Each structure stands twice: as C-alpha cells, then as structure tokens.
Amino acid sequence: MGTLIDSNPQQLVWLITGTSSGIGRHLALEVLKRGDRVIATARARSMPQLQSLAVLGADVLELDVTDSPEHLKEIAKKAVALHGHVDVVVNNAGISVMGSIEEHTLEESYQQFNTNFFGGVSIARAFLPYMRERRSGTILWIGSLAGWTPSISFGMYSAAKHAVRGISETLNAEISHLGLRSHVVELGYFSTNIIPNRIPYVPRISDYSEIIGRADGYFDSIYGHEPGDPAKAATIIVDLVRGRVLRRARRFRLFWGWVRITIKRPSCIART
Ligand SMILES: NC(=O)c1ccc[n+]([C@@H]2O[C@H](COP(=O)([O-])OP(=O)(O)OC[C@H]3O[C@@H](n4cnc5c(N)ncnc54)[C@H](OP(=O)(O)O)[C@@H]3O)[C@@H](O)[C@H]2O)c1
C-alpha cells in the first residue's frame, strides 16, 4: 500500500463530535499528542467529561448533533472563530438502538437515524461553507462493520451505517473538485461505551424475543473483551488524515478489531 494522501506538515485544527468517551475521546487525545489543535465537543449532560481534555489543551464546546441545523450552524461559526478555521471535522457521535426492525417504533427509528446519520449530515452542512471558502478541509465519518453486514437486533443502526458510507462517498465525489474530501472509517468491534450505553430492546412481538434476546446476550458477553483497541484506531485515523503511509493496511477484510478506510476504491484495511 503506497502513500494514501499528501503529507500535511502543518498544525491541523480538528473538531470531533462525541468526545466524552470511546473512539471520539481517544481521537481527541491522539490529535493533541501529535501537536494538532482539537475542539472536543459533547452534549450538555456530558460536558464534565471534557474537563480532562481541556486540561491537556483541547478547546471544548457543547454540541448535540441532533440540534437544529440552524443551531449547529451557530456552533460551527463559534468553532471556526476559535482558530480562524477548522481543517478536519469528525462525525463520530453515535448511539445504538436495539430491537427488531418490525418491532421498532417510528420514533425509535428516527432516534437512531437522527444521531448516526442526519446529525452528521447537518454537521457537514454547517462546516462545508467555511471549507469551500478556503478550498481546504476534510469531513471524516465513523462507519461500522454493521454498514456491510446484516445485524440482528440493531438493524436501524446497521441501516444508518450503510447510509453513512453512501453519503460519505457521494459527498467526496461532489467536493473533491473543490479541494475538499470526505472519507469514511469503518470499525469492527472496539472497546468503548457503545454496548453498555445501548438503548435497550423493548419487546413488543413475542416471535422476536428469542432471536433478539440471544443477540443482546451476545453483546453483554463480548463487552470488555472487544478485540479492537480504540487508542490504536485513533492512531490509524490520525495517520490517515495526516497522510502517513498505512504500512499495516494489507488485507481486504472487515471483522473484529479491524479498521476499514475508504479513500479511493479499493479500500484498505488495517488491523489494530
Ligand atoms: N465501539 C465499536 O465497536 C464501534 C464499531 C463501529 C463503529 N463505532 C462507531 O464509533 C462512534 C463512536 O462510538 P463509541 O464506540 O466510541 O461509543 P461511545 O463510547 O458510547 O461514544 C459515543 C459518543 O457519542 C456521543 N453522543 C451520543 N449521542 C450524541 C448526540 N446526540 N450528540 C453528540 N454526541 C452524542 C456520546 O456522548 P454521551 O456521553 O453524551 O452519551 C459519546 O461521547 C459511533 O459512531 C459508533 O457507531 C463503534
């Protein structure tokens, strides 16, 4: 695998959504470690968790990706004002809503898509005007193994991650002539809070209780034993954005602790 994108020796300004835990938090820490600037964001209830990032030099902003597009535009304006620009926006915030597709209410389905899909779309729309003006910027989307495979008990999550891949790749095709890029990084199973924080299954149709219960039990059993190390994923993601060669990106496979990154087809996979 050769060099993926041009090296960028400059200090970059990153804005990351959902940095109170997991991938987002590790990414913020890695960005700081590299000497870049990070605007770490979280929804109101999780702002105290950003204190330790602020101590390390992060700027912190309250940002709920499900807020109105108008409000998110105001936040983008505030974020850009901090350092004059934002180079990299990471659409990381995510939740998982458990249950079978037939049992889900429309509200539950919207809740899943509003956070994992439309939230990212609104964030991209809020920052793209500034990026277009500078003819420079990257939108990074955190996708998932579930964006490729059938995912019993989290079908709406899976559907939203399929959509994330679709929008990232299409957006890239629409903005690359402007010097901008949009990439999706798709993760296998990583040790974060996504399993304990999952929105629980509400049984409504007895025909599904066994299959969904079994899948739910599986998540409980792997929690704490996920093979993917989020700190290593963060290293790979920052390497990617900074244009470092992904020497470990050899295999085309997506599973467990693997990270799949679509820059141009074919994608490359890195083992964490
Ligand atoms: N862990 C994995 O195995 C895995 C695999 C594939 C993809 N991913 C993706 O990785 C991303 C990060 O998840 P994670 O695994 O690191 O889980 P996590 O530890 O639960 O982190 C999720 C983050 O998203 C935030 N968030 C949720 N709803 C939000 C909203 N409306 N606005 C702003 N922030 C919000 C959470 O904040 P609160 O503290 O306020 O809840 C938290 O900081 C997600 O997109 C997830 O789908 C994870």
From TrEMBL:
It comes from the Eukaryota. The keyword Oxidoreductase applies. GO terms for molecular function: oxidoreductase activity. Keywords: Oxidoreductase. Pfam families: adh_short (PF00106). The keyword Oxidoreductase applies. InterPro entries: NAD(P)-bd_dom_sf, SDR_fam, SDR_oxidoreductase. CDD domains: 17beta-HSD-like_SDR_c. Belongs to the short-chain dehydrogenases/reductases (SDR) family. PANTHER family: SHORT CHAIN DEHYDROGENASE, SHORT-CHAIN DEHYDROGENASE_REDUCTASE FAMILY PROTEIN. This is Oxidoreductase YusZ. It comes from Grifola frondosa.
